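Team,

Forwarding the record for the chain on the shared tracking sheet. I've put the sequence and predicted structure together so nobody has to dig through attachments.
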Amino acid sequence: MAKICIAFFLLTLSFSRSITVVISQKDLGPKVCQEIWTAAGDNLKVALELKVDLTNGTSQVFTLEPAGAEKIDSSPVFQSFRALLKTNNKENQDAFLHSITQPGRPVDIARKHLNDEGILNPVEDQKTFISRLREMWFGSPTKQGFKHVFVGEQATTDEYSGFHNWYQLYLEQLKNPSTITAVTFEPNSYTHNTDVEPSFIRLNFEWNGRKKGPGSSMFVGTSPAFDFAMFSLCSIVLFKENHQDGDCTCKIHNSRVTIRAINRNVSKKILTVTAFPTSVVCKFQTE
């Protein structure tokens, strides 16, 4: 008997209330995203290592199971990421970039793919690529892509922007008192199934009393190295094809993953403004 899994998805049509983005789309190919996923050995398994509470108003969306807590505590990537979330300085930036660019890790897989496809011309070694990533994510003194995407920005007295990382949300909810309140979930936006990876969610919440519209979309349980590799890969591919705004699609297991990246061209150099997942769609058939 055939079994068909269709996971729900939600696609964002604009990244702010006032600016509509004309979206180009680029397929990243059949293998690279799967290789990036496989290389991230510290992705958490949802349900087994990470629980998700979909109750509106919940005080804790994400709860680590003992196996998940052990995985994070033993992961240099998560530890350097947590330090960078707490204190965004050059020392912590260097430590984080070092941890995610080791040979065979997700970001290194992305670099090799970009070299193999001729997108990086001339070919970039690890040191050169790290310099590129630093410039992309930390190079702007006024609009830092890393802060926007992975931390979130409290833009005005009543609004925040960005905030596309599940672990940052987890840490903010652990604070006493929690900085996260008024949690609600977009209908049919949570994708999780034993055959669907990565998990994806879109939710609304107040962060230190500030709201965002529309809400924050994020992968669930993923390693910071996976997120960083996927977002960087998409940003560079779009930039090299002269698209400052666009979607990248690719396949991981039985899932079709879509990522949106918005970049700036500053003196022929790429600065990432934002990057985030917009959907994870599963549709497969087995006999």
